[in-house]
Design goal:
With about 80 residues, the chain is mostly helical. The chain has three helices and no strands.
């Protein structure tokens, strides 16, 4: 792999990192909202939807982290 390709991969890594940070920030906001809900609302349909959203955001952040790792390996 040449220097130009490694530089392009680094740009992708930087972009993915930025997206991952945004996803993690949103996840934290949703977790805080959920934690501040009364317990009876946490157990409601709305609470379950929030939990699913939080789990999906967590999975997305994990997948983005995995993509970053793969790209870093490709740079070597």
């Amino acid at each position: 792999m040449n220097k130009t390709q490694r530089n392009q991969i680094q740009k992708w890594i930087d972009s993915i990192n930025e997206i991952k940070e945004g996803v993690e920030s949103m996840q934290e906001e949703e977790e805080e909202k959920f934690d501040n809900m009364p317990e009876n609302l946490q157990e409601s349909e709305r609470g379950e939807q929030m939990q699913n959203g939080i789990e999906n955001l967590e999975a997305a952040a994990s997948s983005l982290e995995e993509a970053i790792g793969s790209l870093e390996s490709a740079q070597e």
